[in-house]
């Protein structure tokens, strides 16, 4: 389109036949010979029509005096003047850039804010979701019951002067069901649901984001009572005062408009705003005050009972085998969110479909859990016999330390089959959900993390240890650092929180972190050396079967330690 507009103006000028230009002396010679028939006097010269051609002669204006014109007339030349008007070439030269700029701005505006086929914000009038579809979040659902009552019968609240919260902020990790709870709230109340994302308000042109906020609340007031759901609200509600650039001013203007719409000059009766974020610490304080987001509802990770309920909801449309126990899966998935559990069941269904099975078996669920936790199994990866032995020794070291260190989680399985980035791994699962971690558990985790390197050194010698312990070292260093700087578990540093200065800690803190890691490594080496027979037998079992379950690991370790004690 832009090229067509430019061509429409430039093409006639390019296709016009060019007029030859001659010198004034040549013109005078032709005039004396009587070859000149007609002269058109223009602003910067003469357009001359001679006997056999048309030419142009540049002539300063001061030479075009009355005697000179009389001279031309006396020579039999027809003299004429151009009519005053607008030069088409000059007009084209001025209009083409303006048209191009206007076209670019128009296209940009169409792409960013005006699309007749796209309805924004998206409005759902009959939300099908209900609280029965939300499992594992009983406390948030109970907190929202009075909001449902208000949306169904607002007069019952207004008669006694009660004011329902203007806004509800749902805070929690990703995948815990914040969006689903908001949709279920609208479905239970039977009101319209306007869903947007914080990033929907970003735009390349100044003023568009602010107008979108106004448009959102304008549409909501027309449909009151209704719910506005703003997902990832931290994209629009971050703290102000970042800088003085145009982008910062535009961001603050957009946030100010949101603050005014929620509790300002404009009334929002019957409109409840629900925000969702996992970064409540970055939100502007003005957004969190009463009258805007009055309440914060924590939507956390489910406990074992919640996980079982979530699995049952996701399994409604799946065919499970008769011996499938969702309770055991719930116990073996600590820290899983609702989205993780849904993904686990979907992976299990995919495994069943690949095998041509008509129902999901416990083996499919186990394979799906291993894939989600450990990564994709890579049996096609070629591993040399030497590296295979090294991996078996490394993983056996982890397993031995995990079985014999008090406070450690139980071993669920050990494998030397590559998964994801790892050539092998030992999976440990807690017996129950933990909310407070004791020092004994942290030290046990450090010993288990060091067990792989300790086994390598015990079997192959200090010069044969490998880079396979890199992730273990990083994990152990992180635990020790937090023990010293965050949790007050170092007698030398005390119960104080220590922050980094120039990306490093004070020397005494670094020394304390090193001391803890070295002590736990020494404990791991002692465990391996005192139970070398158990390590060797576990290595043989891994080389033979590649994957062994936790009960078999414990049987081997306990059997060898009992023989040594006898």
From TrEMBL:
One of its GO terms (cellular component) is plasma membrane. InterPro entries: AAA+_ATPase, AAA_lid_3, ATPase_AAA_core, ATPase_AAA_CS, FtsH, P-loop_NTPase, Peptidase_M41, Peptidase_M41-like. This is ATP-dependent zinc metalloprotease FtsH. Keywords: ATP-binding, Cell cycle, Cell division, Cell membrane, Hydrolase, Membrane, Metal-binding, Metalloprotease, Nucleotide-binding, Protease, Transit peptide, Transmembrane, Transmembrane helix, Zinc. The keyword Transcription does not apply. Its EC number is 3.4.24.-. It comes from Microvirga subterranea. Residues 164-303 form the AAA+ ATPase domain. It is a multi-pass membrane protein. The active site is at 395. PROSITE patterns: AAA. Acts as a processive, ATP-dependent zinc metallopeptidase for both cytoplasmic and membrane proteins. Plays a role in the quality control of integral membrane proteins. Signal peptide: none annotated. Zn(2+) binds at residues 394, 398, 472. ATP binds at residues 172-179. Its cofactor is Zn(2+). HAMAP family: FtsH.
